[in-house]
Write a structure and sequence with these properties.
Blueprint lengths: L1 E2 L2 E13 L5 E13 L1 E6 L8 E7 L10 H12 L6 E7 L9 H16 L6 H11 L3 H6 L3 E4 L4 E4 L7 E7 L6 H6 L10 H4 L7 H4 L5 H7 L1 H12 L4 E4 L6 E6 L13 E4 L3
Parallel strand pairs: 5-6
Antiparallel strand pairs: 1-4, 2-3, 3-7, 4-6, 7-8, 9-11, 9-12, 10-11
Helix pairs in contact: 1-2, 2-3, 8-9
C-alpha cells in the first residue's frame, strides 16, 4: 500500500514567546501543497530480526535509519499494537530537507495513517494526531492536511477556509539547510500587532506589507544569498513571497494567468506546486 506525503508552506510565522519547557509558542498558517513524495509499506513475510526493513530512493537522507520519522512512527504504533507485523518500508524522497517545508514531518504522519489503514487499527483522527505529536510539533497538521491556523508549538490547530487554487505557487530551495535550533536562537519573541489569522483574511495584495515570517531577518544575516530569492520572486511578478518555516525554502504566489520566468542558479530546486 502506498501513500503520498505532501509538503506545506507557512503563510506568516510569528514567534510569540519562549516557553519554560524550552520550546517557543508560534502562530502561523499551514497550507498544504502538491509537492509530494511516496511511502510504501508491505508486510514482511520473511523471517527477520528487524521490525522494519527500511529503504530509500530519491533525495539522499543523512542520519541513522532508526531516527527516520517513518521508522519512529512504526515503533510508536508497535508499542500499543504488539500484533503489528514486521514490515518492509520504502520512502522515495522528493521534498528538500532542512527547508521549512515539513517533508520529514509529513513522512512520519503519513506512515501513521498508512499503518492505520493497511492493518485496520481503527485509530481515530484524534488518536492519530496524539501519536503524531510524539513525533514532532508540526506532525499533527499532516494528519488533517487542510489549511490551518496553528498556535502553541504548532500543534494547536484550527481549520480555516483558505483556497489559493486561483494562483500559481512556486517553491524555490537553494540547497542550503537551516538549523531550526539556530534559527530560533536568533529570534526575540514578541506578540504581533495583528494576528496572522486576521491578516490571512485580507486580500492577498495586502499580505506583502503585513504578513511576515519572523525567521527571515536572522536567516538573511546568516545567508545573504537567500534574501535574493525573495527579491527575484517579487521582481518576477509574485503577488506574495516568503520563506517557509525556519527556511531555507521560499515560495512565490503568482496570478494564474501570469507567465513566470525565474532566473536562479542551476543547482537550485525550483518546482511549481499548483493546487
Amino acid at each position: 500500500m502506498v501513500l503520498f506525503p505532501n509538503c506545506k508552506i507557512n503563510l506568516g510565522l510569528n514567534i510569540v514567546r519562549k516557553r519554560s519547557d524550552g520550546y517557543h509558542d508560534i502562530e502561523t498558517v499551514f497550507y498544504p501543497t502538491l509537492l509530494k513524495e511516496a511511502i510504501e509499506i508491505i508486510e514482511n513475510v520473511q523471517q527477520s530480526m528487524l521490525n522494519v526493513q527500511f529503504s530509500m530512493s530519491g533525495l539522499p537522507i543523512e542520519g541513522d535509519i532508526e531516527n527516520n520519522l517513518c521508522v519512529k512512527a512504526y515503533q510508536l504504533i508497535k508499542k500499543d499494537f504488539p500484533q503489528l507485523p514486521n514490515v518492509q518500508m520504502h520512502l522515495h524522497k522528493a521534498i528538500p530537507m532542512g527547508a521549512g517545508l515539513g517533508g520529514g514531518s509529513a513522512d512520519g504522519a503519513f506512515t501513521l495513517k498508512l499503518l492505520n489503514k493497511k492493518f485496520g487499527l481503527l485509530l481515530s483522527e484524534k488518536q492519530l494526531m496524539n501519536y503524531a505529536l510524539q513525533l514532532g510539533s508540526d506532525c499533527p497538521f499532516f494528519i488533517l492536511n487542510k489549511p490551518c491556523f496553528a498556535k502553541g508549538r504548532g500543534e494547536i490547530l484550527d481549520q480555516i477556509d483558505l483556497d489559493l487554487s486561483a494562483f500559481k505557487i512556486f517553491i524555490i530551495h537553494p540547497n542550503i539547510q537551516i538549523s531550526t535550533a539556530s534559527a530560533f536562537s536568533n529570534i526575540k519573541p514578541a506578540i504581533p500587532n495583528k494576528s496572522v489569522k486576521e491578516i490571512i483574511r485580507q486580500p492577498i495584495e495586502t499580505w506583502r506589507e503585513e504578513l511576515k515570517n519572523d525567521f527571515e531577518e536572522a536567516v538573511f544575516i546568516q545567508h545573504p544569498e537567500i534574501k535574493n530569492i525573495k527579491t527575484e520572486l517579487y521582481n518576477s511578478g509574485a503577488v506574495y513571497a516568503s520563506m517557509s518555516g525556519s527556511g531555507s525554502a521560499f515560495y512565490g504566489i503568482f496570478g494564474k494567468d501570469k507567465t513566470v520566468s525565474l532566473a536562479f542558479p542551476k543547482n537550485y530546486f525550483i518546482k511549481e506546486v499548483n493546487d
